[in-house]
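[Automated response] Your request has been received and processed.

Submitted sequence:
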Amino acid sequence: MLLGANPIVVPIKALIDAVWGMYIHSNIDVRSGKLQYFINGPEMHQWHHANDRAVFYANYSTKFAVWDWLFGTAYLPGRKKPSEFGLYYDYPKDYFLQHLFAVKKVDEQKLVSKYSWFRAYHSSRQRVMAWLSGRLRPVRQDEHMQPVRPAEHGQQARPAEHGRSTEHGQPLRPAEGTVIEPAEN
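Generated structure:
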């Protein structure tokens, strides 16, 4: 491990980051009092996401608010809460454009209208997602199921899938050629 750190540090740090990230982004009314000058909480970090020009460049810290207070980027107007969240400009929906946007502001719609190669790429993502959503749609438990015929001459009928049966008590089985996808839990 780099610099001799114990490997267990990585999952512990990841757990702390995940839990703390959920905490500071939660919509709960928590008051940290003077602790807010050292450790960040939702009451301060939510202003970082507010659609308010006064705070577009404020409250960057995620864990240690002391850095915002030291560098003059802290904003905490008492018990007041933001009235609106989000950005005042259009942020790209495309993953790669989001990275480019960090160094050069680009308008996704202008790129679509100006460059045919980008239009092809942009629309292909939507087609792939539509195709995937159609292919991965959940299958209902009873979809494509039909009753099993009673056993003939002492043979046993096939048992019902997952213990399901028709309203008449006949076990269900998949129709011929049907692919049954496992249900998500």
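Summary generated for your ticket: Strands lie at 145-147, 172-174. The longest strand covers residues 145-147.
If you did not submit this request, please reply to this message.
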